[in-house]
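Predict both folds.
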Amino acid sequence: MRHRGRRIVLILAALTALLAASAACTRRPSQPPPVSGGTGVQTKKIRYGPFNVPNINAPGQFANAWALPLVGIQVENGMVSKPVQNAEKPCQDCYLTGMKAGLEFADGSEATISRGLWLHHMVALASGNGKKDATCANSALSLPHISVMASPNNTERFFASGNERTPIDLTRTGSYGYRVNPADKFHLLVELMNLNTTDADVYLTVEYKFVNGNAAGYRPVTPVWLDVANCWTSEVPAQAGQYQLNGTWTSTVTGTLVDGMGHLHDGGTHLTYDNGGQQFCDTRASYGTTPDYVDPPGGMAGMDHGDGMDHGGGATHISEMTKCPTGSSLRSGDVLRLTGYYDDAVHNEMSHNGRLHPVMALGLLYYAQ
């Protein structure tokens, strides 16, 4: 236990040095004004960046890379991973009713797999009075929060996206939203990948839908993040063949599900949630449903991701994940279980240096009282 405690102290010290130097907010161009909808809902798309993503032959850009092995993170070619503190908010006193992430070039065209760019993942966090991460608040160490110099006791993960870019809609069953207060601060974790032979400048985008904080009838939601490697890196070693990944959490939240999503890496087939053994969601992956999620013929200039990440010409990748049905109930003390299903006989997993690339199985559920 003494050695484990010393290791945690070393990790915290290294991460503090790492992030204090690198987590300043990326400058953004001026943003267009919000667009109002007919029911008081406004829409605002914010560009975060630009982010310079190194080419496939160039070392990845991870701030103070010397410290990353302490937390088991491998620096790979063609990638950039960056925390962004004090990111722009779409509104000051409001309820967020919908969110969708994207990736685009300076001219506004989409940056997709077919053009060699990946939105590997992004996570949005909010700090402020009453913000508390449901599943990591009692953790001794929470890397997502440390990465933006915050604590899970005053900061929560409220939105995330992988390359499939699943939209969140908190109004599927009524007037619900994620509460944003004037003093709240937003932060981002952004990881991007470039399979081209030239560097690329791209912008992370988030399209927010929101109503004013005094909008009649709106009620707040609580985001619940479930993860097979929760409060850590979210990635776990892949396996060959058919296998499952599991994560559990004993609830401190009571409410009714108003929206929910799941995220897997290539090779994944579906992800389920159950409460006390009763399944209430089965979110399924689709591959290559649009040309944007298909590698071009010949692959990306014959390159492998970091000397071994195979992306052959014509390969398909996860393009959609179905959403959870609404209406299931959760009570404090219930045991939620997340299960991610992988089968490389159905969909190929990625490999790196002859080894399978780490995988994820995670998701966000939104509950309202």
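Second protein follows, with its predicted structure tokens after the sequence.
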Amino acid sequence: MGVSTKECQYCLSELSSEARKCKFCGEWLVQPEHQNGASSTQNDERVRCSNCHKLMVPRLIMGPPSVHGGSGYWTPVPRKSICPYCAETFKVFSKSQKEIKAVQGFKKLLVAIAAIIFFVAAIMLILFLVSLPAMIDSYNMGKFK
């Protein structure tokens, strides 16, 4: 009374012999018929992972959203895509020009803040050194009287 099984060619999981779609990886074992009669291999988005060598559709990892002005609208920004089986990075997406300009503007702001802090610290040191002889004189006057 054993149930006959077969192996998924994509994730190597054990499935029922009647299975048409893998319940573990979601891949079709038997390609479904399309209404227009076109072959499903024309629109196949699967690629082979360089790490685990399985056919897969890369999963997108999203970064912080890109906010459009003060309108409140935002767009998700993809950072990289990974293999759903082994989590190996498949592709890293480059940053947009808007993000690059924002980072450069932030760096300029940090440099300006550091320059202001340095300038204030230098003025405080100069004022301390200028007033130091007067403080020493007043200390000495009080000590010897």
